[in-house]
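Lab meeting, action items carried over

1. Structure of the four-component assembly. Owner: GW. Status: complete.
Input record:
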Amino acid sequence: MTPMSRSPTTPPTLEDVARVAGVSRATVSRVINGTRNVDRKIQEVVRAAIDKTGYAPNRAARSLVTKRAGTIALVVSGAGDPGDEDAFAARMFSDPFFGRVASGVLGFLRTRGVHPVLMVADTEPAREDVLSFLRQGSADGALLVSTHAEDPLPTRLVDAELPAVLFARPARPVPISYVDLDHQAGAKLAADHLVRRGCTQVATITGPLDVPASQDRLTGFRDAMARHGFPYVPIAEGGFTSISGEAAMERLLAEHPDIDGVFAANDLMAQGALLVLHKHRRRVPEDVALVGFDDSSPALSCRPRLTTVRQPVEDMAAGMSRLLLDHVEEPGLRPKSVIFEPSLVVRDSA
Amino acid sequence: MTPMSRSPTTPPTLEDVARVAGVSRATVSRVINGTRNVDRKIQEVVRAAIDKTGYAPNRAARSLVTKRAGTIALVVSGAGDPGDEDAFAARMFSDPFFGRVASGVLGFLRTRGVHPVLMVADTEPAREDVLSFLRQGSADGALLVSTHAEDPLPTRLVDAELPAVLFARPARPVPISYVDLDHQAGAKLAADHLVRRGCTQVATITGPLDVPASQDRLTGFRDAMARHGFPYVPIAEGGFTSISGEAAMERLLAEHPDIDGVFAANDLMAQGALLVLHKHRRRVPEDVALVGFDDSSPALSCRPRLTTVRQPVEDMAAGMSRLLLDHVEEPGLRPKSVIFEPSLVVRDSA
DNA sequence: CAGACTACGGAGAGCGCTCTCCACCCCCGT
DNA sequence: ACGGGGGTGGAGAGCGCTCTCCGTAGTCTG
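Predicted assembly:
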């Protein structure tokens, strides 16, 4: 009942540390945050007291006054199948691409003491959830990996003046920061390589044509091929999945049996194409040369291993995180974009 | 300078809503949290005021008094390669298995207003980070997906009396809750299927033998084979990756060229094995029947599609989350374990 | 040596919320 | 008519932290 009695289950507070160290709360706070010069000796005493008490600063209390959560939302956004919300998350998270994004984000944030909260925004309530999460100050900003061209979230975030950065340019113009790849340059890399190899009947499997990245890869590929003297490139649209790649390859083969080179707009679809080419007894790369895009894990687990356009996803994710932290620091900052350069990774398939 | 002037950039607080509604802070709080009966009319007035002000409760302030963060840590734990910390994260997150875990966790939490914070604990500082994150009250508990047999994190979590639940039984006994699969039953499913198909020269590619799941799958497989009259089962140890599966299959083929059935302890290794079998011109399933484990995405993108032992990972992840929330609710709760049943998914490879 | 300035510790006011008390009102029984 | 009790709103005390403001001591300048 004495005032000094404190339940042993209650974690130590700044006050406790201050008492043990024989200084004031403010001083302990200064030592912890390094905000101002504190005498060497006192610093040591305080640190000893921290160790002794096992003190850990309470994040909620700190956030309350600093108005910083120290977390950001990592949002995977897209259109879920109504009635099967989990399927969207499952699909996204099993895409090796997302794994690389997460890894890049984590790698960058880990040194800044910021932590990502995983969120899925595939339905309207889920989007509301993201918005209110940010408005509550539970996260200082949002990193958005959007899969859907008509995603309303970027606009809503901008309207609410919440710091946010996109992975990839939005389909419709929104004044928001993003990182992206020079997709056209990447596609050109693929085209040049195919032509250099001597391919003359080249086709491409595109991604869903409502997403800008797919469009750009297609445009870049066509332009480059045209410049090489090939004005016509057969195309088959896929959906960035292995299965859709198979279907697209089947179509291509049916309509253009003499194909000797294929550019698939991502590795997953290239993997599917490979299966179909095997089935049709086309040797890769001898009969048909195949170039993928992304340089994700399937590129390596395929046989032959995929020649592919490398997207520096981890770097892009890190860049996206950096951009977001900038926006969090300085709320007025106007939107920026950072474009990364792809590179060709030559392996066995072309 | 009048007291009513409030910067327009400052988000509205409970106080503001109360003023607009003409009631007290406490009443607004009660309406929002539904903690006590509030007069119908007043409820409506308050809700109108909330809409009008665009109020969103400040999470930090709430956490400060409720001592609940409303978030949990989703920790991927293992041993990183020193000097290349990011590689670990990259590997883990691109494993389709992890994607399913994340998706299951998210699916469960989404309805409870709890959010997962993604963390990697591959190095000592990273482990410290996880621990202090929890001790700071930034998260109410931890979900641990451990890949490493000697992972010290579970013990440290228990010692610090922090709520935590593991995915899979820890290698060394620790008084902690976990969900797991009946791996032995799963392996038996594979063995029975292979024998039923008429295989007589059956081998297995195991996971790393220091992790319990690998041991159990091996033991279960051997026992079942023995019961079928096959006392000897050649084994090759892999590392749960596609590459390691290739190497293991090569070894198996070199030492036992007459093999006609293989059980791989996960789909990724089965995928690798498939590549090697193709290379050696063994038809699957005609010459060699192959059964995987997990039923993850590679099982479907392989050709032939993999017959595999399905692990209900999403359900397990949801169960893990539920267990954790129970522990958060009731700190004294003693450890529980929940074991899930596998099932056989018959496709084309066996 | 006065005056001014620098360096550094302490006091105390909040940050926005929840929750315990307390006050009040109205309805009931006697 | 009056006391008791259930239902409901308000007041106010913190939760643990940061940060501004102030005080004191030591240092420098002319």
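2. GW to write a short summary for the group page. Key points so far: Chain B touches chain A through 60 residues (CB under 8 Å). Chain B is about 45% helix and 15% strand.
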